[in-house]
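Students often ask what a 'structure token' actually looks like in practice. Rather than answer in the abstract, let us consider Spore cortex biosynthesis protein YabQ, a protein of 172 residues. Its sequence is given first.
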Amino acid sequence: MSELITWEWKFFAIAVMWGMILSIVYDGLRIFRRVMIHRKVAWLAVEDILFWMICGFAMFHVIFMVNDGIIRSFALIAFGLGSVMYQYTVSYYIVKYISKLLIILKRMSIKIALKIVINPLKKLCKSFTIRINKSKFQKKEKRRLKKVGNQSDEKIRDKEEQRIKNKKTKAL
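Now compare that with the structural description of the same chain:
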């Protein structure tokens, strides 16, 4: 084989590999979209525009570095072929299982964060409510005791007065 044909095959293989790499990057975007649910379509559009800009720069860089910037149709076909090969072989499984794993980790991290943050806050709030309730209870109890104490003082006074009157009446 001539050196030129070998170089063309090498360039073709590099373009196929870069097509696969760009598909892996897109799968990363797909996984991100599954894990972080987007409420607005505008964010999806921004992500797509950024992805295609990155793809364009990457393809231009590869073509510029390997083929001196000469755009050849077989290079573009190789990028597409690499992408299609990746998409139809392992892409489905990678996106499916990695996104499931990340969703599980996300849920676990939320639960752990809730346990770490919320449970101490709950305990803190309970202790404050107990202290507040105790202080409210203590204030109410003091008020009640004052009233009861005043009442009991009055009752004692009344009983004393009754006893004194009874003594006087018995003495007469």
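One point worth highlighting: The chain has one domain: 3-124. Ask yourself how you might have guessed this from the sequence alone, and why that guess would often be unreliable.
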